[in-house]
Amino acid sequence: MPEPPAAAATRLGDLGRALAEAFRGPSEETLPSRLCAAVRSATGARRASLLLREDNGWRSAGDAGEQAGTRFDPPVPHPARASRLDGALWVPLESEGELHGMLVLFDFAEEEGEVETAAFLGMVFGSVLAAGKLSRLVKDAEFELKARLLELESLYDLGLSLGGQLDLASLADEVLFRSISLTDARKGALVLFGEDGRALLSRSVGGELLPASLAASWNIPEGEALLNNQARTVPTAGCMPDCEKCLAVTIAVPGRRLGILAVADKESRDGGVLDFTSGDARLLALFAAQAAGAIETARLHREAIEKERIERELELAAAIQREILPHTLPSVAGVELAAANIPARHIGGDYYDFFPLSRGRLGFLVADVSGKGVPAALLVSTVHAAVHLQIDESPTLEDLIGRIDRHLQRYAATRKFLTVFFGLVEPDSGTLRYVSAGHNPALLVRTSGAAERLESTGVPIGMLPNSRWQERAVTMEPGDLLCVYTDGVTEALDTREEEYGLDRLKELVIGDHAEPVGALCDKVLASVTDFARGMPQYDDQTLLLLRRSS
Known about the structure:
about 550 residues, alpha+beta, six-stranded antiparallel beta sheet, five-stranded antiparallel beta sheet
């Protein structure tokens, strides 16, 4: 016979008040245990147990009555609704369609009100468990949010600290110590690589955690981490010796790896070693991304300073070389002069000079050093000084060239050589004496338009010890023109990689040999420039013109 509604309401009211009182029960017992005790007392069950569902099974959260604490397993499959199984009433605890746990009443004798009791308990306990789960989720979310905020604040502070460092070595130390502090590690290592992939800089704390010689072979994808909490028994291949647990990330900018950052042995409060977590890996990867920007900035700053230093040195060398070249041409009766030099770089390896001598004579030279840049400029300076010191002491041009060669063989810091055309003209008689040490053939253009080649009379200076040169002489008639040049003129290339060549130079000089030498010099160099337009030139261009006046 069904239970009268009034009686059922009274019974459920009593059960509700018992549960309400359990919420206000003594704090020494857990709430699930107090609820189980209240249910057992109100229903007369021998034992009341609360099981909570977890990812890997079920866990006892509360137990009251006889044999409380003894283990038992829920039936498989678990009941989908309140059911009696083996003398126990199993009540699924659900909320919004999700099963949170099971309430089990052992030896529950009341059968008439069983359905209402089970429904009431399922609703109350399901709501309590849902509220508890929601509370835990909220607490977990608050904790996670606070942790993220602390991470962001830490990373922001670290970014400000790193951003003020432009010295790469100091920045590397800062990055390493900050990463150790950030992860509570005992050890740390940082290896930075140069653009060639080789180790550029290495730092370690607590021992050589990451040998620089082996770090270059590591391949950790950008933004990811290598986490090994079994490093003692399963060491990371090739690196990280003598540590229990390790964590490493790549420091990189788009398109290039800058280095490897590693920490090891996360320390606990009691001095033990904790596992590194995925959160530690994420935090270290974020820090590495910030460090990458600071490191790249410091590297670029260092390169800019180095480039600026080199440019200042090159500009100084260029200024010195400009001082070596004649500022003005000498005024010598009986000859007309023109000369020009166009270096391929800031500083070049070509050189020309004039030496007014006694009895109205004029010495002159055009030289071309092998190679370019600073080493060539140094040799030019050496030759310039040697010629000015030796020219008054040398009875012949052959002797002068020999003296310069011996000086270079003994004192020149660079193992280079140079070609030289050295001439001495006597305007009164028209005699031109010259020595050509491996230089390009000079052109002697007669007033008739005929052209003679003045060939080499020996090897380049500074090339071979104990070398000898021949001095030769020709006569220049009034109006005759001498053209001396370096191979940067004749070997200038056009867009088809064809050389300007001696034939073009010869044709131009012969055709316009009667023009003033200054205008002819400009015309020759302009012709070479037009021919090679659109192509970079890799050799200096020097041209010297000398005409005997009528």
